[in-house]
Design goal:
Order of helices and strands: EHEHEHEHEEHEHHEHHHH
Helix content: 40-55%
Number of strands: 8
Radius of gyration: 20 Å
Strand order of the largest sheet: 3-2-1-4-7-5-8-6
Shape: globular
Distance between the termini: 57 Å
Structural class: alpha/beta
Strand content: 15-25%
Number of helices: 11
Amino acid sequence: MNFIMITVFTPTYNRAHTLERLYNSLCTQTSFDFEWLVIDDGSTDETKAFFASIASSSFNIRYYYQTNGGKHRAINKGVALARGEWFFIVDSDDYLPADSIETIKRYVGEINDDNRFCGITGLRVHPDFTPIGNIVFDKPTDIDNLTFRIKYKGIGDYAEIFRTSVLKEYPFPEYEGEKFCTEALVWNRIARKYVTRFVNAKIYICEYQVGGLTDTYEKIMRNSPRAAMLYYKELLCLDGLPLRLRISFHLLYWNYRKSFKGELEHETAPTWKMKILFVFLNPMYKVWRKLKCLKNNIAQYL
């Protein structure tokens, strides 16, 4: 097998208690053609001390500290610093099966010279190795991520490995005062130009933590309304979007618009079509807000 360098990238924030498990899983890989690049996004726990205490002769470890700015800023910095041809984001509370890197090398080797591909997408699994996503292809399938999510109705988290050069084409937008931008925004942008190879390979073990991004997703989105609006605005620009999704995305856009009181940039501001449609959707939006509030109030007593 030809030498293929992979950057295993970990953005972390106050996860000193889970990092050792990830580190141990990297130490037991069957292939060591990777570096471990870590961006510490302002941790106040023992994360820095942990990295000062470890060493590995099998693979290179590079640790950087930055002021807390959010995972998307950490990814932007990681992409800029990466030495690998391929970029594999592995969160600090997750870990890898022993053959993960070897498996990734085999699959990316098949597409390494084909510039139609942005990368491969494998399976994230629970600790008992049951898949997290709802779709598992029997054989390698070449489609873009938007087709997978909309046409195939793919739901759940998967393990994406991207060409580092492609990620450099599509940096995450950074808004002052906001610390979150969903990865899906960038993955969708990439999908308009590139396809990915979906493979039936369990390469990532995921254990969701209380208080993590997944657990507090809606609250985090509301605290970063411009990035949220940009995400839904771009979804609304897609051709062939089912009506039910178009209505939902409109309502979600205006939901986050309510959270931002300042002046919007052109890229996040609603188009005239969105404004006109909102005139008709506004009554539905108000009902949706009331029902959501009622649901939250009821949940307090359950």
